[in-house]
Amino acid sequence: MFKFFKRKTKGGSEASVQDEKKFSSFVLMAFVLLLPLFFIPFPSFSFFFSKGILIALVTVILSIVWLVNRLRDSKFTYSNNPIILTSIALPLIYLISSLLSGSVMTSFMGQGFEIGTSFYMVALFLLMFLTSSVVNTKERAYYLFFVFFISFFIISIYQGLRLIIGPEFLSFGVLGDPASNLIGKWNELALFYGLTAILSLVTIEFVNRSVLVKVLSYVVLLVSLFFVALVNFNTVWIVLGIFSFVLVSYIISANKFSLETPGGFKAKRLPIVSFLVIVLSTAIVLGNYGDAGTTDNTSLGETLSNRFSVVSSELKLTPLGTWEIAKETLKSRSAFLGAGPNRFVTEWLKYKPAALNNTQFWNVDFNSGYSFILSSVVTVGLLGFVLWIVFLGFLFIAGFKAVFIPKNDKAEGYLLPLAFLTTVYLWLFSIIYIPSHAVMALTFVFTGVLFALLMQNGVIATKEISFAKNQKHNFILVLILIFLMLVTLVTGYVVTQKFLAAAYSQKGLIELNKEGAQLGDVENNIIKAINLSNGDAYYRFMSELALVKLQGLLSKSDLPEDELKTQFQNILGQAVDNAVRATQIDSTNYQNWVSLGRVYETVIMFGVQGSYEQAVNAYLQAINLNPQNPALAFSLGVLEYNTKNYDNAVIALERAVILQPYYSDAKYFLGLTYYNLDRVDEAILQFKDLQTLNPESKEIVDILDNLESGASPFAGFQNAQTTQDTEETTTEEETAE
Predict the structure, then answer these.
(1) Rounded distance, CA 183 to CA 179, Å?
(2) In angstroms, rounded to a whole number, what is the distance separating the alpha carbons of residues 236 and 238?
(3) What's the rounded Cα separation, in Å, for the pair 652 and 640?
(4) pLDDT recorded at residue 207
(5) Of 58-62, 178-182, 267-271, 719-723, which has the strongest mean pLDDT?
């Protein structure tokens, strides 16, 4: 089907460069093959971090090879095309925004696996440019699509066997849920198969020379449609229908004007297959909307989900909800460059609507908005968002024009539309969805393929510059290239450390959740994580672990008093130091301040001077960062209640109840606080509300009877004080969780 050409090289240096390009091509193709499949099959390794480390390491390897090539030939290819210029400007904006974010490390790299950090944005754009450099021939572009389809078949076999045998099949302790898959989120599986459906349609409609290719294309299409139906992500059906409609329109237009279609074949027939996909997509979309809220009819997706016992849901903000957060951010000093990459959650916590507290999602911290591109208004501001729009606009326009340029090369006529449709499809889901690592990396790789084809086709004009003949310029170039090589190696080392740290942390968490957990083993794993990566989450973990150890120590009765006191002071000191260190690393994360508040709250019990003030200050800092969270106001209120500062407790607890009118725990303590302030009538009202919210609670009935009869709330309770103390402790622990 395809004709490949061998090229001879002249001179040892040029031959060496060609060998290195072949190596880069092999690495890139292996990456496209493995990326949708790859994960480390151990529970202690995060699934998404496994994808992230692969992306980072492949980018590092390709970068080093590219730098070595430039050291050898001293030649650079560049372009002044607006697409190239904006794609250089975007990662720079991410870096600058990170530096001004107020929490540089969180914004730059985070815990090491967040796709929205400036590190990953730089890595992905670099991967895009490296792909365009590696795919410098049409046969390499073919090979890239070929290995992508190999990946498709492997994933399909794996997912199909899991559907037939059960989710425990080859789960490796990681993919145990029926909705677990190799791509990422459940909806992303539909996104992946939507892409393969479109690619198979293009091949079916335009490639006529190979029966084997035709048969395989039909197989790909049928399998893809099955999995899209199984996941039943309505957006994919809509997009698939639109792309099929565009394909049908293009072929009919080509018939009318006797134009050659991609692949060099004249379309002399109605594109039946694409038309049937339009009909199927329309029917399923209308069926999904028509069945909403009814039980009489079941859609195809629901039928398949029920048949294979796959249930999954994905929670994300609406476009309007995202825009409300963006609007508030744009009113602040963050308008131009945003709050910083990976910092959407900080703006969400500041500006989330109070009405959300009346829903079951009142305590959800959203790390992103409705879509990746729309979230960029918050993270990288107006400048970043406008650059995204400009970049995508120029990219789509250039690709659209290139599709209609007459081509003498049939291979080019097939590849260019294929790469263009792939790129548009993937970027479209960045506009309307939040892709994770695999889909996002594929987006940039196939954009790089489109870049390469546009350059080969002359749509993107390029120039070559050489520093080989000027020794002074060559010397400066060598210095810069060696420096960049060192930076690349250091980056790879840091990413590896982050990855290992996350693995140790996850291992410690798994050990902690085991029955009869050995706290010493847990602590050793977290210490290893801290030694590898100085993250605030690890220090916060250590602080919470110290509190657990403290509780265990106080329950021991066989230790001498001096030894007990010494161990107590050491553990308490560790708890305080680790909590303080977490706030120093990221003072904008409210969870760090909550952890510090809990530690100082524990210290209060032992009469340590200044601990009350420190605890109150920590909780106030947390509330300042997350003002709409009723749980934080409740924690402060309980602290004030336990220290008998009832006037302060009322203020905090009333705030919690205002934010969450159905917050039973807050009403419980607010009622007790009112009683201690001789505001009995108000206390009775709170417990009447509690009785409505908890009609089966005998304790609330008894407390209410006591209050209405003029007795103390716990009059007649056996071990009344113990009951109250237990209730307080339990409530605080639930809040922390």
Answers:
(1) 11
(2) 5
(3) 8
(4) 77
(5) 58-62
Could you tell me which residues come within 8 angstroms of residue 328 by beta carbon, excluding any fewer than 6 positions away?
Answer: 347, 350, 351
Above 60 in pLDDT, residue 565? yes
pLDDT digits (tens, 9 = 90+) for 614-623: 999 999 999 9
Structure tokens at 575: 């708890």
C-alpha gyration radius of the chain: 30
| Pairing mode of beta strands 463-466, 75-78 | antiparallel
Reported as half-sphere exposure (CB side, CA atoms, 13 A), residue 448 has a value of: 28
pLDDT in tens, 289-312: 655 445 455 667 677 777 776 777
What is the CB neighbour count within 10 angstroms for residue 329? Answer: 25
Q: Is the pLDDT of residue 561 over 80?
A: no
pLDDT at 626 over 90: yes
Crossing angle between the packed helical segments 611-625 and 630-642, to the nearest 10 degrees: 170
486-489 long-range contacts, CB within 8 A, separation 24+:
488/60, 488/63, 488/64, 488/67, 489/60, 489/64
pLDDT of residue 34: 95
- d(CA 301, CA 228) in angstroms, rounded, equals 8
Least reliable range by pLDDT among 336-350, 511-525, 578-592 = 511-525
Alpha-carbon distance 196 to 199, whole Å? 5
CATH of 629-737, one of 1.10.730.10, 3.10.450.710, 1.25.40.10, 2.60.40.790: 1.25.40.10
- Percentage of residues in the chain with pLDDT exceeding 70? 89
Highest mean pLDDT among 118-122, 262-266, 520-524: 118-122
Q: How many CA atoms lie within 13 A of 300 on its CB side?
A: 19
Query: In this model, does residue 5 exceed pLDDT 50?
Result: no
Give ∠ CA 378-380-386 in degrees, rounded to 5: 95
Work out the pLDDT band at 731, boundaries 50, 70, 90: very low
Indicate where the chain has its CATH 1.25.40.10 domain(s).
629-737
285 to each of 234, 247, 290, 292, how far by Cα in Å?
6, 19, 8, 11
Tell me the sheet residues that pair with 260: 266
Output the six-digit token pair for 365. 């911290």
CB-hemisphere CA count at 13 Å for 220? 27
CA–CA distance from 249 to each of 259, 271, 407, 419 (Å)? 13, 9, 20, 19
- Determine the pLDDT at residue 15: 57
- What is the spatial distance between Cα 121 and Cα 191, in angstroms, rounded to a whole number? 21
Geometric angle at alpha carbon 626, from 322 and 383, rounded to 5°? 40
Alpha-carbon torsion 413, 196, 449, 17, what sign? negative
Residue 546: closest CA among 513, 515, 514, 569 = 569
d(CA 496, CA 479): 26
Contact 186, 314 (CB under 8 A): yes
Cα gap 381→383, rounded to integer Å:
6
The proportion of the chain whose per-residue pLDDT surpasses 90, expressed as a percent, equals 48
Three-state DSSP state, 578: helix
How far apart, in whole angstroms, are the C-alpha atoms of residue 123 and residue 371?
20
Q: For every residue of 385-428, which 3-state class applies, written as one string?
A: HHHHHHHHHHHHHHHHHHHCCCCCCHHHHHHHHHHHHHHHHHHH
**Does the structure show a pLDDT above 70 at 604?**
yes
Tokens 């505001």 — which residue?
Answer: 679
Nearest-5° Cα angle at 255, 251 to 261: 50
Cα–Cα distance measured from residue 698 to residue 683, given in angstroms and rounded to the nearest whole number: 17
How far apart, in whole angstroms, are the C-alpha atoms of residue 394 and residue 339?
Answer: 26
Tens of pLDDT, residues 227-247: 999 998 889 999 999 999 998
Longest Cα–Cα distance of the chain, Å, equals: 102
> For residue 77, what are the β-bridge partners?
464
